[in-house]
Specification:
The structure is a homodimer. Chain A is of the alpha+beta class. Chain A has 3 domains: 140 residues, Creatine Amidinohydrolase, Chain A, domain 1, CATH 3.40.350; 140 residues, Creatine Amidinohydrolase, Chain A, domain 1 (3-Layer(aba) Sandwich); 287 residues, Creatinase/methionine aminopeptidase superfamily (Creatine Amidinohydrolase), CATH 3.90.230. Chain A is built from 18 helices and 28 strands. In chain A, the strands form 8 sheets. In chain A, strands 4-3-2-1-5-6 form a 6-stranded mixed β-sheet, with helices on both faces. In chain A, strands 12-11-10-8-13-14 form a 6-stranded mixed β-sheet. In chain A, a hairpin with a 2-residue loop joins strand 27 and strand 28. The first copy, chain A, is globular. The mean pLDDT of chain A is 96. The interface between A and B is medium-sized, with 25 and 25 residues.
């Protein structure tokens, strides 16, 4: 058993407790299999969790999305499940602090721990005189560990992104200068891809390449597996930066003396941070690139509009296909997801999906991160909802959209909840807001109508979206938990309120919006949302009596745009159908 | 000139710069004249500001409410105005930091500086090697300084407050215990009045007495001018606490050794804090009493409802009188305010007004804190609005209400803005919210409809209200600047959105609400607002076309309650009128 092999490694090294997080050296959201150490050790395949192993005990912490799945997957592994967020369950740090003895030694691989979370852990454990050793105990025992990926890197053309890498680097240097810093180390893969205008295929759903980037006053240094660079890409990059092998960064960083580094503690690993010697000074903050890339430039905004229309065409064709096909033959959730991908693949500049499609029928829709596979898929029947949350990676943008599709007869409760969700969506999407307003401030606008009806959803309302980068991109966020950072024109956010009733159904209506200027009155500058996503919202599930006049107007206005943008790319049957389902509704 | 006398005192003491804040030793909002040092030195009578004097310069910092008034009042004083919040104007701390030289000595009276703001100042100045000396340079030069007030203290009866002082002290001790602290020093006057169930008349608009309170595990010690205590009050207090003279607290505190103090740095002065010796430890937080008194008990909630009805009767009678009288004779803003006070005085348990009535006609309404006096008052004409914001201190509650009263013909713009304000008020007042929601989260609900119409108000939306205590009571607050503290059942808050157009008019509609439980669904606990204030909202200013159905229903529902609660206390003419102005409106 793998757990026993780990324990014997621990014994050899005098480690009393070993922690295996879910991470790669870059703090990525999606991991290549090579980095799935926690999955290797526990068998649990979910996207989030932390494993802790002592001489006699082994626990896996994960959150509510995964309780059922984790319980079943870890059965043979020797691990016990710790249900995060359930009252009475300690966090893994609390557990360590309460259950380890003073002078115990905790092991972890500093390459997979970001500095911020490591410092929190260290601080808590040191209070109990428990110490941490940076040590890799997994690599040795992982037979047939997947190799690091080796996909080619390619240049993301100027016509798509509208800003050269040199220009971006100059903006980064301005900021470094502002902070009186000499150097920044960028470890997050989307920030590197953005800065250099390169893309890769090391990770599914994300067009990134494993690499590190150092930007200093006079030079730029990229650390990357050179085999991934074809002649053309190499020449392109060579004009921008010095190129070293991926692993050389640690030695390279060690040679700096008496410099001031700008570091993002959430995105730099303990190992990377530790390779910078003590003669240097530091200033901490979010990656300088974060703010720069979150405000899309004019070329990106323009291209993106096309990407969203193509994506809407794929989704609209899919909905038409689905509604017709379900009457003719048996299809399950997984078939539907595959078919949707097929429609996306037909679109220009499509690269891959931007995340695993959620195709959730009936009660599965209530699981907010359900993913269907060929074995467990429900057959779609001619009643209730199919919730489809999906997106694409295109050279000209990243998309994310959810439609809750009526498959046949609906209950009154389903219609009411769908209508409340629609009200919630429109209340946010049609609002205006003062410059300086944060996503945190706006969140309640999407809950107001649900709360009035004793409903709520246990997620944020919206997240930022990258431009052919991550589908979840910080800093924009519309959530009660988001920061006070204000929303600015050029930022891109989702709006995705929902109703989730366990054992019954899930409803979510999601579009992506760009933030644009509206009016200026005296010193008051107002912003608003401009919709990017186009696909019909299922009017069969709407109770018109529950809609206010402004909501009916907003729906009709939206559907008019959907028809205008989408219909030119449809065949005549599809177009006729779209004309009907986007028709103007009158009370 | 007073400024010269201060400068010669500064020279004698080698002080390079002297700071005079607006404060008393207790961090009160309203000051007795004895403590108005900043007014004495600058002639500026406003309620907020900081004066700074150096050998050659003298500045007064104050905020936008007071620019015009301050400019005119300080003309002869030798001070120059610094306009807070205007771009390019440094804060007084920034100014000190930029303009003083290293090794300069800054003087201030530590009795009037709360620890928190002092620490911020000290931190900034020390970075520039500028030092602070605690020294009183004003008392010497202030001839005919008003004596400290000497009003009698009285017992606030149990039938009004429903919780004995001993019970409150025991709750405070539980909290001390929770923090592992031995002692708390309470310096804020409303917290002392609440804890001991006493009231006084040292400060206008606030039923408080200058005093300090120490609560420790075994004993309670009150510091107060004993002359203020009649036999009965003395005996009452003597059962609860040891009684010392007001000034003796500093010596008394100095005698503690090796204790742990719980201290509110926003409410304890530098002098008070400094009198505790170094052998003691500290835990910091808001006064323990703050949370306890903010959640009103059942007796307070019940009594308060009566107080709010009485207050509504006074205001309703006033509106009736005003609307009729303006047609018959000339009345000005000040006359109106006096008449309103007359109606309040007729109410049972009325003690005084809870703040200076804002009676602002026409363009004066746009000044959010306008106060009329007999000389400058505008005559009320038969057009436009009179904005009246007022409240009372009753033995059974503190009130605060604003009505914008139609005096005759209105412009379309006035009607629209009034209607938007009403929509804003109702959107907040009819909402439901999840347990854990803060006033900060809710604020945007009152702005949503105004923002949609390119309007905003530059103040918070609501504040907590005391129970026969301060009319502005923390912690409840509905504002983009309020903390994340959640609103809880039993808290009392105002809801007062508005529209202010400089040179034209001001509109504000303010009611007070208690927070009550609504429904629990699964783990979701919902709260809502229950209205306490009753007085007609002027339907002559409403454009029904701009109201949604739910808003019309909310207005009709509210007016029905107004008639039910208020009409029994009116004469028959008033009642007939009220019936008409609270009639059900149909679209």
């Amino acid at each position: 058993m793998i757990l026993q092999r780990l324990r014997s490694e621990m014994k050899k090294e005098n480690i009393d407790c070993y922690i295996i997080p879910t991470s790669d050296p870059h703090g990525s959201e999606y991991l290549h299999n090579h980095f799935k150490e926690r999955e290797f050790i526990t068998n649990f395949t979910g996207s989030a969790g932390t494993a802790v192993v002592t001489e006699n005990q082994a626990f896996l912490w994960t959150d509510g999305r995964y309780f059922i799945q984790a319980e079943s997957e870890i059965k043979e592994s020797g691990f016990k499940l710790m249900k995060m967020g359930i009252e009475g369950t300690p966090t893994y740090i609390e557990w360590l602090s309460e259950n380890l003895k003073s002078n115990d030694l905790v092991g972890l691989n500093g390459e997979y721990f970001m500095v911020k979370s490591y410092e929190k852990l260290k601080h808590t454990l040191e209070e109990k005189s428990i110490f941490i050793k940076d040590i890799d105990l997994i690599d040795n025992i992982w037979e047939n560990r997947p190799e690091l990926p080796n996909g080619k890197v390619y240049i993301h053309d100027f016509k798509f992104n509208g800003k050269s890498s040199l220009e971006k680097i100059s903006l980064i240097r301005n900021k470094l200068n502002y902070y009186n810093a000499n150097i920044t180390v960028i470890s997050s893969l989307d920030d590197i891809a953005w800065t250099l205008n390169i893309r890769g295929s090391d990770i599914k759903y994300c067009p990134f390449v494993y690499s590190y980037l150092i930007i200093e006053e006079e030079s730029v240094v990229l650390f990357i597996n050179k085999e991934k660079l074809e002649q053309k890409t190499y020449e392109y990059l060579n004009k921008i930066c010095y190129i070293y092998e991926y692993d050389e960064i640690f030695n390279y960083l060690g040679k700096y003396n008496n410099k001031k580094f700008y570091i993002d503690k959430n995105k730099v690993s303990v190992k990377l941070f530790g390779s910078i010697n003590n003669s240097n000074n530091f200033v901490y903050g979010n990656n300088i690139t974060e703010d720069l890339k979150s405000i899309k430039n004019a070329v990106e905004l323009e291209n993106q509009k096309n990407a969203y229309i193509k994506d809407g065409v794929a989704l609209t064709k899919f909905i038409y296909w689905l509604k017709n096909t379900v009457k003719l033959k048996k299809i399950n959730e997984y078939d539907a997801a595959l078919k949707l991908q097929e429609f996306r693949k037909q679109q220009k500049y499509y690269i891959e999906d931007s995340f695993e499609t959620i195709s959730a029928y009936g009660k599965n829709g209530a699981m907010m991160h359900y993913s269907a596979n060929n074995e467990n898929s429900l057959i779609i029947e001619e009643r209730g909802f199919l919730l489809v949350d999906s997106g694409g990676q295109y050279l000209d943008g990243t998309t994310d959209i959810t439609r809750t599709i009526v498959m046949g007869s609906l209950t009154e409760e389903e219609i009411e909840d769908f209508t409340y969700t629609l009200k919630s969506h429109f209340m946010l999407s049609t609002c205006k807001f003062l410059k300086g307003t944060s996503g945190r401030d706006l969140d309640i606008l999407a809950r107001y109508n649900l709360w009035k009806n004793n409903l709520d959803y246990k997620s944020g309302t919206g997240h930022g979206v990258g431009y052919f980068l991550n589908v979840h991109e910080s800093p924009p966020s519309i959530s009660p938990r988001s920061t006070e950072k204000s929303l600015e024109p050029g930022m891109i956010v989702t709006n995705e309120p929902g109703v989730y009733k366990e054992g019954k159904y899930g409803i979510r209506i999601e579009n992506v919006y760009e933030i644009v200027e509206d009016t200026t009155v005296g010193n008051d500058v107002f912003y608003k949302f401009n919709v990017l996503s186009f696909a019909p919202i299922d009017i069969e599930a709407i109770d018109m009596k529950l809609l206010d006049n402004y909501e009916i107007a907003a729906l009709n206005d939206y559907h008019k745009k959907v028809y205008e943008k989408i219909s030119p790319s449809l065949n005549s049957d599809e177009r006729k159908w779209l004309y009907n389902v986007t028709r103007e509704l009158i009370r």
